[in-house]
Amino acid sequence: MKNRILAIILAMAMLTGAVSFAALAQPEEVKIQILATSDLHGWFVPWDFATDSSSTRGSLTYLATVIKQQREANANTILVDCGDTVQANYVEYFIDKPANPMITAMNHLGYDVWTFGNHEYNFPIGQRNVLVEQFNGETLSGNVFMKDTGEVYLPGSCVIERDGVKIGFVGFTTPLITKFEKGKPTLDEVDVKNPLDVVDGILASLEEQKVDAIVGLIHAGLNQENDVEGSGTIDIANKYPQFDVIISGHAHVAVESEIVNDVLLNEPYYYGRNLSVIDLVFEKDGDGFQLKDKKAALLPSGQEEDPELAALMKPFQEELSGFVNTPIGKLINADLQGVDEIAGISAANIGSVGILNLMSTAGIYYSGADCTLLNTDYENPGFPVGDISIKNIASSYSFTGGEITVYPVTGKQLTDILEWSAGYFNQMQEGDLTISYTPERRASKYSSNFIGGGISYTIDLTQPVGSRIKNLALIEKDADANPVFDGEGKLVTTPIGIEDTIKLGTNSYYVDQWLAPGGCLEGQTLTPTYSTFDELGDDGTVRNLTIAYIRDKLQGTVDGTLYTYVAWGIDSGVDKTSDAYTQAVELINSGAIALPVSENGRTNIASITVSDVENAQK
């Protein structure tokens, strides 16, 4: 009876004009969820193509299962990505193919918005434009402009409507792409501005469109990068409370929920390991809606592949596996991988490893440098005796685009760089038994432990930073850039004086960091004389230089004994013949003692001590 009376009252109200049909059609409360990913970096399936092996930590096929579940719970779903999508895990192999697995997967999943990351700008504008054309949703990058017209290269915003609610999305790419792409032609046609210089106009445009909420999809971490204002989303939130939510990327960290200036900040981690879920609750307010509540969560990807997407991705996976298994030669006589004496303390971090010696040799040969400084996030480079394929190189050096740029430096400058690099390690204290890493440096997105090639030296960890590099010398090399040994099998070296000029080969991006405020060469100037990228393009990367050296110079046969020499090492001051050290090694390797771990899961941030050993044996 009550329902009939209510129906009669509503009918009479509509007849008298008190209530409109449109008003009845609009719900009083609308719940919208935004699902977000970032820094997928080619993980369309749970497969590490650098090693051509399964990796169950994350992927789009895993996330597809979670996305489907979330959509079933709320049809008012918007799916977005914050960039660095089509680079790494060897997915750039598909950049000139008719179809790209990442774009294909995103279209299948119905992504609505995609903000370009810095790695989308690794590719020339023609290839980038094809990616935009292939993607079915909106592509944003509102702080990049065409040089010839001054028009924005990609839109800075778009509006997505769900159940009458209009969400304005704002997309920016880190302004540091100018640093990352320095010396490359990928930005020749565009100018990059700081997001803080263009956000006003974009927000004004969205306000004119009467959006009900504004969400930033910004490929930048929460904090400033390289001390550049506007390179972190906290800067943007502090200046522009008009944003209701900002979803970040780039930093490769998991940020579930932080509030800055009433702006909700979130970052969904990387490699498809998490899905961000932003829940927005709106109430009807006149002609629009008022945002009444907002919250964020991170959902793990799980390990259940969506069968439909997995089937769609299978041909891409098979093709890419075939590529990384392309044979390039054979390794004979000796492995080039490091052997960890202590589990969790990488041999590649604390002394010469054959594969990095080989990579340095290739870099020196093709660039004409006297020495190199390389780093890699792969702590256990795998390079056993046997057939060599592309994946062996990729699994030993983590950076797809790293090149060798040559800079003349003084002996003092080279020493200063190595001293800074040696700051990656904690100073050994009384009672310490194992080498460990400084928590601050270990927490970084990328390793900052640089490995010298073509030079010999010792890092003395009994000394403070600034006094650690000992016996720095240049290794004599033959015409093929291989080291020269004397009659006793020792490296032939020449001490490097502080005023000597050395041709250093390294990645230009890191040189910019060293020269920047707070860097180890702050205020100084280094002028590059050669770049393998300028000369060879994509063939000038460290990976591809090593492949070319094996194929062309070594004619496909690598004698491992030529690269297993010890050029540098660490003096920890520990007596490795002592019972305490022997016991520490046994206890760590057996799992009885665990290396200290930081809050974000980075290992070995403090030494195992004599006391630790004694306590473990009680």
What is the CATH-assigned architecture of the largest domain? 4-Layer Sandwich
Which superfamily, in CATH terms, is the homologous superfamily of the largest domain? Answer: Metallo-dependent phosphatases
Q: Quote the CATH topology of the largest domain.
A: Purple Acid Phosphatase, chain A, domain 2
Based on Cα principal axes, name the global outline: globular
Structural domain tally: 2
Radius of gyration: 28 Å
Strand order of the largest sheet: 6-5-4-1-15-16
Distance between the termini: 79 Å
Category from helices, strands and their pairing: alpha/beta
Approximate helicity band:
25-40%
Nearest-integer average pLDDT = 93
- Largest sheet descriptor: 6 strands, mixed
Strand composition percent:
15-25%
Count of strand segments: 28
What can you see in these coordinates?
- With 618 residues, the chain is of the alpha/beta class.
- It folds into 2 domains: 28-320, 4-Layer Sandwich (Purple Acid Phosphatase, chain A, domain 2); 329-575, 5'-Nucleotidase, C-terminal domain (5'-nucleotidase,  domain 2).
- Helices cover 28% and strands 24% of the residues.
- The protein is built from 19 helices and 28 strands.
- The strands form 7 sheets. Strands 6-5-4-1-15-16 form a 6-stranded mixed beta sheet, with helices on one face. Strands 8-9-11-12-14-13 form a 6-stranded mixed beta sheet. A 5-stranded mixed beta sheet has the order 21-18-25-20-26.
- Helix 3 (60-73) packs parallel to helix 4.
- It starts with a helix and ends with a helix.
